[in-house]
Amino acid sequence: MELTAGAAIAEITPAIGLAMGGYSLRKSSAVGTHDPINARLLVLGDGRMAIAIVVCDLVATPPALVAAVRESVARATGIAPANVCVAATHTHSGPVFLDSMTEEIAVVAGRIGEAAARAQSAAQPVTLKLATAVVSSVGANRRRPNGPIERRAHILLADPGPPHAPVATLVNYACHATVLEHDNLEYSADFPGAMARTIEQAVGSVGIYMQGAAGDINPVWMRHDFAEVERVGGILAGAAIRAVHELRPAGAGQRVINLSWDEEVDVAAAGRALRPCRLATRRAFFDLPRRILPPSEELEGVYQERRATYEALAPEDVTGRRALKPLLNELRMARSRKRHFPAAPGDTQRVEVQAFRIAEDCAILALPGEFFVEIGQELRRRSPFADLLICGYANDFVSYVPRAKDFDDHGYEIGSALFAPEAAGIVIDGALDLLGDLTRGSKDD
Q: Which of 21, 340, 342, 414 has its CA 20 to 30 A from that of 197?
């Protein structure tokens, strides 16, 4: 089974003046561009079907943008829209494309379609190779100081083999792209962009940051500035660059001269070449129950009461303030959700979960919202595939999807959640069924 891969970059930086996503405290639209807003693409084909992974330097990919990109890629390449994944790096310094922005979305989708055509025309036979790298200094759990984090980055290499440069280096990791804060008013891809650029300069491949289940993971920073963006991105890039160089001998072989024996001896490579198989895709749609909040007057009353209690605490009462603040943050966000996203009993919202089998023991699972890191870890642990890449913020944006037990801990993310506590379990079970179906294959593959 011969697999081909092509990769390309489409610049999608819009005109200055669009709103920037991610921070409610940001009071101004963009006033400049620090570094380009890009879409980076990987196109894989096996001679009978192809898939496209599109990762945009945006906080989210709304439904209208996803639909337009899928249609544009299909027109340009013939790849079925259902085989196209459109994800975001979740940079909080990128522009916001609303569903109503039809002209701006059409421009972006057109550029991505053109890039997909370039990637397809440049596709060449490759071996997919995979390694993990310990990365424990980039992210921290933002809900619990000692809570779980993503300690390993997964590096997927599309390698045609020496002397040709790699086609693409995809880094899958879970961490909010929030090194820059709300006071930044310049478009920027934040650390995922810095990581990708560094990889591209070092190994000659297209660098792609695939965001994972990063709902409760924030970057560790010294300052909120562009130098720090480069430093944090450089940590991930350094781990990936080393992995690329160590992966290249996988499947090709490397040797050392043993002078005692006067022989050349094989030396195992770090990482491994994935066993090829026919590409396969699956997707499913789940109607998640919307979360029903108390009446606005009740929410407001409880919020004001707890706020007064909090403000009455002495500054030195750190324990008391920390105990109350998560609930205060939850109530603050719940008031906003009640105003902007009201729900009535029985309301549901349909979400898409998408899966790709890219090798015998490796799959990509695309989720539409902000899932906590433990959900990603559970999915990997229970997956029928030895290696599972989690692609968060994909094909839509449905805010936070915490596990049922996370609701007891309160906090900003809980107040922001659109769905009832059982929603995460529905997605987890459905995603595992989808992955199981991929392993079984079908006559339609």
A: 21
